[in-house]
Design goal:
Layout lengths: L7 E2 L4 E2 L4 E2 L4 E2 L4 E2 L4 E2 L4 E2 L4 E2 L4 E2 L4 E2 L4 E2 L3 E3 L4 E2 L4 E2 L20 E3 L4 E2 L4 E2 L4 E2 L4 E2 L4 E2 L7 E4 L4 E5 L13 E3 L6 E4 L5 E3 L5
Parallel strand pairs: 1-4, 2-5, 3-6, 4-7, 5-8, 6-9, 7-10, 8-11, 9-12, 10-13, 12-15, 13-16, 14-17, 15-18, 16-19, 17-20, 19-21
Antiparallel strand pairs: 21-22, 23-24, 24-25
């Protein structure tokens, strides 16, 4: 570990060798950070969090209680993982025919600003777009567009969410967020783009 004085680890937690943890990050009770993990600045790991070997986590990420981030999963900056949500990293696990090692893992990328609700499941091999909102208990089985509100089993897009978290009502073409003022436009391929205008 590097710069141990610059972050907090509760005495009940375990940090393996060759782990990097950024300034201001907090690792709370009964958690385990495995070798090769790289965790950014100002993150919060709740109680009973497991971060697998070689996992990369960005800055300002919040991981709530009882979440395991397995090898093959990457979280960008400002990702929120709700309590007891689940990641996987193998599509067809069999105890009789073990698939051991990174070459078997299907990569999962969770992009900047995404929120994943409590008890949701993210099936491996998919990318969750920027600022997406995954509803509690949903099961994601395919790629998710930026800003998409995903709900259900399997998860389907039920709307759009602003970068700030505001859920948009039904609209056509363009919308301005009533909470933060960001402007968005629907593209021809039915994806949402931030116009980057806070007027």
């Amino acid at each position: 570990m590097e710069n141990k004085e610059s972050f907090f680890v509760h005495e009940s937690s375990y940090i393996d060798d060759n782990v990097k943890i950024g300034d201001g990050t907090k690792v709370w009770h009964f958690s385990h950070i495995q070798k090769g993990a790289n965790i950014g600045e100002n993150c919060v790991m709740g109680q009973n969090v497991n971060v697998g070997n070689n996992v990369k986590i960005g800055n300002n990420v919040k991981i709530q209680n009882n979440v395991s981030i397995y090898e093959g999963v990457e979280l960008e900056d400002f990702v929120f993982c709700g309590p007891s949500m689940v990641f996987t990293n193998i599509l067809d696990p069999r105890c009789k025919y073990p698939q051991v090692g990174a070459k078997y893992y299907h990569k999962t990328l969770v992009k900047e600003g995404t929120s994943i609700g409590a008890n949701a499941t993210i099936v491996c091999g998919n990318t969750i777009g920027k600022h997406a909102f995954i509803g509690a208990g949903s099961v994601v089985t395919k790629d998710v567009p930026d800003y998409a509100l995903m709900v259900g089993v399997p998860a389907k897009r039920k709307g759009w969410a602003c970068e700030c978290g505001e859920i948009f009502p039904t609209f056509h073409d363009e919308i301005k967020c009533p909470r933060c003022g960001l402007n968005y436009k629907l593209t021809e391929d039915n994806t949402l783009k931030n116009i980057k205008d806070r007027t």
